[in-house]
Amino acid sequence: MSEMPGPSPAQDEAGRPTRALPFPQLLRISLYWLGLSSIFAGLHQLINGRILFQGLGPRGSEGTTLFLLTVGGAVVAMLVQPTVGSISDYTISRWGRRKPYIFIGSCLDIVFLYAIATSDALVAIAAFTMLLQFSSNFAQGPFQGYVPDLVPAKQVGLASALVGLMQVLGNVVGFGIAAIAIKYNQFVLGTIALGVLEFVTMLSVVLRVNEGRAPKSREGRSWFHVAREAWGTDVLRERSFVWLVGSRFFALMGGGILVQLAQNYLHQSHGLDQDQTGTTFIVVLAIVTVANLVSVVPAARVSDRIGRKKVIYASCAFGGLGLAIVALAPSISIAYIGMALFGLSSGIFLAVDWALMTDIIPKASSGRYMGISNVATASSGVVAIAFGGQLTDLVNRLAGYGAGPRAADLLGVACFALAALLLRPVDERRREDVPVGPEVSAPVGAAEAVATG
Q1: Are 296 and 351 in contact (CB under 8 A)?
Q2: By residue range, what is the domain housing residue 132?
Q3: Residue 41 sits in a domain of what CATH number?
Q4: Beta carbons of 199 and 117 less than 8 angstroms apart
Q5: 3-class SS string, 237-303
Q6: pTM (2 decimals)?
Q7: Using 50, 70 and 90 to split pLDDT, how confident is the model at 12?
C-alpha cells in the first residue's frame, strides 16, 4: 500500500530538516487537511440543520441541543489527539510512524459518519459523534507531525500557506456540502459525502508522502508510559507554546461562534426559511471563501518578512471588526461586509498561526506538541457552541427571538480581543535561532531543544 520509508532528511543541530522539498510533496502533505477540515465543518452544519428544520430538538433550545450533541465528542478529541500524536512519535512500522494511524482513523470515519447520517435519536447521534471524534483525531494527531518532520525552515511559510489554503478549501467544501444538503433536504447523502472526500484525500498521504525523521526511542518504557507522557507537565515550561495555544483557542472560538451559529443567525435574526437559509448560506460561503483565498498566501509571505505576530494581530483586528458588523447589521447585505472581513481574518490566521506553532515547538516531539496545540482547535468549537448557543437561547427568551445570535457574535468580538492579548508574551523566534548561553536569557526549554532536537 505504501512505499517503504526513505532515509530521514538532513537535519540541523536543532532537529529542523534542511533539505528543501519539491512543491508536489508540500502539496501532498497539505491535501489531507482538505478532507479533515471538511468533516466537522460540514457535520456541525448538517446536525444544526436537522435541529432547526427537522425538529431534532425543542424549539427555543436549538443552541443547547447542538451543544449537547457535540460536547462529548470535543472531550474525546482533546484526549485522543495529543495522546496518539505522542505515541506516533515513537512508532516503528514498515509504513513509518504516522501512516498507520492516518489510514485506520480515516477508514473508521466513514463508518461513524454513516451511523450519524442514519440515526434519528439524539443519544445515538451524540454517541456516534464521540466515536467519530475518536477516529478522526486518531488520524489527525499523528498527521500534524509531518510539517515539523519534513519541512525545512525556509519553506515553513510556504508549507503553512498550503496548510491554511487546504483548511480553507476543506471548510468551504464541508460548508458547501452542508448548504446544498440543507437546501434540498438531503442530510444523509451530505453526511456520507464528507467521509468519501476525507478518504480520497487520505490516500494522497498514505500512498505518496515520504517519511521523515526516525522514531524516538522508547528506552524500554511501556506504551502506557509513552501515552501518559503526552500530558506531562514539562509542556508548561514551554511558555511561548502555552501562550500561543491560549491565543489560538480564543481566536478560533471567536470565529467558531460566527460559523457554528450562522444558520441560527440567518434563520432567527433575519427570518429566513429553510430554503432561503440554505441559499443565503451558499452566498456567505462564497464571500468568505474569496476573502480566505485572497489573504492566505500573501499573509504567510508577509509574515516571513515582518514576523508572525504582527500578522496575527491584524487577523484578530479584522475578525473582531467583522463580527461586530455582523452582530449589528440591519440587513443581510450589510452582514456580508462583516463576513468578508471575517474571511480575511480566517485566511490570515490559518496560514500564519500554523507557521508560528511550527517554528517554536520541539521538533523531535512534533506529534505530541502539534496534538496538544490542537486541543484548542477541538475545544474552541464546542466552547463556542456552549457559550454562544446558551447565550443565543437566553437572549432570545429575554429580548425576543432573533436577538440571541447577535449577542453571540458580540461575544465573538471579545474572543478576538483576548486572542490578541494572549499573543503578547509569545517569543516568535524560531527555536533554532534562539541563542543559548550563560549571557543570554533564552526561553525555558530552548536549551533542551538544541541539545535533543
Answers
A1: yes
A2: 25-213+236-426
A3: 1.20.1250.20
A4: no
A5: HCHHHHHHHHHHHHHHHHHHHHHHCHHHHHHHHCCCCHHHHHHHHHHHHHHHHHHHHHHHHHHHHHH
A6: 0.69
A7: low
